[in-house]
C-alpha cells in the first residue's frame, strides 16, 4: 500500500518525534541482527587461534556488545528506553574469508520492538573487535549489518531474504 | 616486522587492559571514517527529496552521530576518555545505488588517536538513519565501515587504499 | 489540607529517598511543560527565517530535547527510571517578543508521573538553542519554565491557571 | 560588525557541526550563570525554615547541579567534552518574593568556554528543587536563566547588564 | 543439588550472556545490602559531629548512593535494565569502632531481582564518603559488603546468617 | 597539623563543592587500590578452575572494572571528570581463603589524583564477580577496599601500612 509509506518518526509538519506507543500492549518481541568484520589473514588467525596471540578479543567484544545494547536509547534519538530481558551475541569465524560474522539476539516483553538494540549490540561488538586489533590491522572493514529476523508486535514477522543487492537496485 | 604483531590491548598474560599513554605527548590528531547505508529506491527518494516525505532524516542522523562520537569511551571498553575538539559528518547520497555514503571527521590535540570516535560517529549516524526509516524499509544494509585516513601520533599516517576486498583474501 | 504538606522525598528523619511507588498500578499518564527563550531581534530572525542564516537551530534543539527527556533519571536524583512511551516538542516563535515558546509533551503507562521528563525536554531544548546561537547573542534569557498540565495518577489532573505572579506573592 | 553574525555551529551548507577548537590554546576560563525558581509562600518557608519541614532540599539540589554540570556534553549536542576544574553553586533565598535565586560558577583551563556547563548546573539544580517540592506545589516557575559573566578565551569578557527586557524589544 | 551449580551468565559454550527473563512474570521484589567504612577517630567525629566540621558528608553520600543504584545496568555487564520503584539508604555510625554502617534497600515490581542495585547503592555511598573525607584520611577501609536479605522471585527468600567467616572456610 | 583537618569538598558555610584545581599544573599521577571478594569453596573453584565450570568470570569482571573507572565522575558527585591514560586490573586468587584479591592501577597526567578511579575499578570488578556468580552463591562478601599507593600531586606519596585495624581503634 503506497499510503503506508510515511516516516513515523516525523509528524505531518516534518518535525521529529518519539513515536507514541502508549496505547500498545506489552507483547513478546525478539530481534536478530547480523554484521561482519573482515581483516587480514594474520589478524584473523591471531583472533581465532589462541596459541598465536594471547588475549580473548571476542570475549571482550561480547561483553561490549551486550552493554552496547543497553545504551540504545542513549544513542539513537527517537528510540524508546526499554527494559530488554535478554541479549545473546554469537561470533562465527569464517576462515576462508578472514571474516568474523556477528549475530545478536535481543528479547523483551514490551510495547515496541528491539531491532535497534540488536543493531547496537552488533555494531558495538564489531567496533570493539576493531579497537582491540587496530594496532596490527587498521584496514579492517565492518559490513553487512542488517536485520535477520523480527518477531512480535503489530507489524508482524520480518525475515531477511538472502540476495539483497538486487532488491536495492529495484 | 613480525615482532610488532601483538595486541596492545592485552598484557603478556593475555589480560585486557587500557593501553598506557601516560607518557605520550599531546599532538594534533585527526581521523576520518566512512560507512554507507543502502536501501530501497523509494526509501532513498523519501530521504533525499523533501517534496515526497517531510522530515529531515539526515539532519537527525548528523546530530546523533556527533553525539555518538562523544560516547566512544562509554561504549568501547579499552578506549581512553578523550576531549575531542571537532566532529563533522557529511552525507553523500549516491542515487544510482540508492545508498547514502557517510563520512565522519574527528580531531583532537591529545595523547592518543580518534579513530574509534570517527567510527562511532559513522555507526551512530547510520543506525539512526535505519531507525528513522525502518517503518518503511526494514531491509536496509549498513556496510563498508572502514578507516579512510588517520594523521598524527607515533604510528604516523594511514590512508585507505581503494580495492580492499582482494587484500582481505590475501 | 495542611497535614498533606510534607516533602515526600524525605523520610521523617529528613533523609532524602526515592519515593516508594512499588505498590502503585501502571496507569496512563501525561505531562506538558512549557518554557521560553527570548533573544535579540536579529538572533530571532536568524533562527526563524532560513533565508538569513542557514542551519536548523530548532531541529537540533528538538532532537536534544527528546534525548534530554530520556536522561531525566540520570540527572534528577530522586526521579524513578521510567520507560517513557512518547515525547513531542513544539516551538512557537513569538515575533513581537523575539521569543521562542517551547512546549514538551511526554506520555507513559507507568507507576509514576512524567512531569520531570517534560521539564527536562524543555530545559534541554532551550539550552541547546542558547548553545547554537551563543556566538551571536550571549544575552538570551530562558524563562517561564512551568508545568502546563498533568493527567493520570492518584493526585489527578493539574492545569496551569494563567496569571501566576500574583499567586506567588500570596 | 554585521559579518560576524553567523551561527558557528553550522557550516556554510547549514549542516550542524561541533566547532573546531583544535588549534586554540588552553587558557583559564570561567562562567557564571543565574536562574531562579519562584513558589508559594508556604513552599518557600518549608525549604528555608528547617523547623517547619525536615529535609535539606537545597543540599540535594546543589549535589544534582554539580553533577549536572558534568553531563553537559552528553546533553547539549554540539558541546565539546570538557574536564571542568571547579563547580560551585550558591542559593540566595529571596523572602519577599518567595523565590530562590541560583548562581553557578564553573572554571576550566581549556580550549573553549564553560557557559553551557554553568547553565546545566543552574537548570539541574532548579529542576531538582521542583522535583523535591512538587508534591506540595506543582505551580513553581523557573525563570531568568541567563549568563552573568564569562571570562577568558578569544571572545573576551561578557557581563550581564541589568535591564534586559528592553534590549530584547530592540 | 549439585547439578544446580552452574553460572547462569554463561551458556554451555562458556560465553557470557544476559540471562533470559523474558518469560518471567513481574512480581514484587526487594533486596537489602550492607557495607561499612571505617576510619580514624578524628575523621569519624568530623562526619558525625556537625559542630566540629561543617558539611553534611552523609547527606551527599545518600544522594550519590540513590543515583548509583540507577546506574547498575550501565556498570555491571550482565545486569538487566530495571525500573526500580524505591531506594532508601540508611547510615548507622558505630562510635566505638569509628565506622559507618551503610544499608541500602531497593524495591521493584519486575521480572528479576534488585540485589545488584542495592549493592551499587552501598558501594557508591561508601566511595562517596571516602571521596568527601580523603583530604583528611586516606586510610579508610570499605568492608563487609554483603547481601542482607532478598525477597521475591523464583529463588525465594535469602537471609544473611551472622557468622560468615567460618562458612567461607567450608 | 590540626588546622589542616578540613573537608575540602565543603566551603566555610558547609556547602558541598567541587574542589577548585584550575590553577594546579598537570603532573604524572598514579593510584593503586585494593579489594577482595570471599566466597564458598565451590564457587571459588568454579571461578578458578576452568575445567569445572566454563565461563571466564574474571575476564568479564576485568572489562567491567576498566569501564567502571571511566564512569567515576558520573557516580561520585564531587569528582572531576578526568582523561585517565591507563587502567590495569589484576586478580590474585587466594586458594586457602577462597578469596579473590583485586588490584587496580590507574594513571593520568592531570591536575588531580586518580584514587577514586582506582576504587571504582576495584568496586565494579568485585560487584561483577558477585553478579556473575550469585546464582550459585549469594553469600559472597566484598571487603578490604582500601588505597594501596598514591603518587604525584602536592600531597605527595601515600603508602598503605599493613596492620590497619589497630590504627582505626586509635
What would you note in describing this structure?
Six copies of one chain form a homohexamer. With 170 residues, the first copy, chain A, is an alpha+beta fold. The first copy, chain A, has one domain (25-159): Alpha-Beta Plaits (2-Layer Sandwich), CATH 3.30.70. Chain A contains five helices and five strands, in the order βαααββαββα. In chain A, a hairpin with a 6-residue loop joins strand 4 and strand 5. The longest helix of chain A is centred in the last third of the chain and has 19 residues, at 115-133. The first copy, chain A, is elongated and about 55 Å long. Mean pLDDT of chain A is 92; it is low at 164-170. At the A-F interface, helix 2 of A face helix 2 of F.
Any key phrases for this structure?
homohexamer, 27% strand, elongated, 170 residues, alpha+beta, 5-stranded antiparallel beta sheet, 5 helices
The structural domain count of chain A equals 1
CATH topology of chain A: Alpha-Beta Plaits
Number of helical regions of chain A: 5
The strand count of chain A comes to 5
CATH-defined superfamily of chain A: Molybdopterin cofactor biosynthesis C (MoaC) domain
Helix content of chain A: 25-40%
Question: What's the SSE pattern of chain A?
Answer: EHHHEEHEEH
Approximately what portion of the residues of chain A adopt beta-strand conformation?
A: 25-35%
Neighbour order of strands in the largest sheet of chain A: 2-3-1-4-5
Amino acid at each position: 500500500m503506497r499510503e503506508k509509506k510515511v516516516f513515523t518518526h516525523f509528524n505531518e509538519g516534518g518535525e521529529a518525534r518519539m513515536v507514541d506507543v502508549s496505547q500498545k500492549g506489552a507483547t513478546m518481541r525478539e530481534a536478530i541482527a547480523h554484521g561482519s568484520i573482515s581483516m587480514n589473514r594474520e589478524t584473523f588467525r591471531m583472533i581465532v587461534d589462541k596459541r598465536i596471540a594471547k588475549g580473548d578479543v571476542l570475549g571482550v567484544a561480547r561483553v561490549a556488545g551486550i552493554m552496547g545494547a543497553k545504551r540504545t536509547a542513549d544513542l539513537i534519538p527517537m528510540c524508546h528506553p526499554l527494559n530488554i530481558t535478554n541479549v545473546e551475541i554469537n561470533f562465527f569465524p569464517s576462515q576462508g574469508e578472514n571474516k568474523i560474522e556477528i549475530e545478536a539476539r535481543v528479547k523483551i516483553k514490551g510495547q515496541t520492538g528491539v531491532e535497534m538494540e540488536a543493531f547496537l549490540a552488533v555494531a558495538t561488538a564489531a567496533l570493539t573487535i576493531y579497537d582491540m586489533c587496530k594496532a596490527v590491522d587498521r584496514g579492517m572493514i565492518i559490513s553487512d549489518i542488517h536485520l535477520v529476523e523480527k518477531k512480535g508486535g503489530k507489524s508482524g514477522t520480518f525475515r531477511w531474504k538472502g540476495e539483497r543487492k538486487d532488491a536495492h537496485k529495484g
